[in-house]
Specification:
This protein is an all-alpha fold. It has seven helices and no strands.
Length: 143
Amino acid sequence: MTAKVNLTERAKNGRNGVQLVYVIDCIKESSRAADEGLEFNTDAEALQFFFDCFEKEFNFQYNKRMFPNLSERIGEWLKGLPSCCDIDYTDYNILLLGVKWGVLSSTDDKKACKFLKNFFSVCGVRILQAAQKVGLNPYKYAV
């Protein structure tokens, strides 16, 4: 059994921890959550809200065939800027995140293009990791 934890209460040690907290904050502070007056008491509630939206808005058979990998499918959905996850989308803001997270030394770092290209996919992976850490089974959405 996976121990249920509140990721935002954990120390933000390492790059992965900061990225996990980032994606959860993007969900908790989303425009859709605000419009619907939702307040999440736990990270698990926020992530369940995210997956409920994902299932209704994007996780159709066609998209499952186009993007068979679940983290890739989530990343592709995030590129469409779903209202339940206010993720950064401009290149400039994404590059600033890269610097803040310690992935890039500056916004004109040689690795900047690769970071931009992989940003949404990495966020998809972090959402899956966060779901597992709080005791959710995100892979039920894979099939």
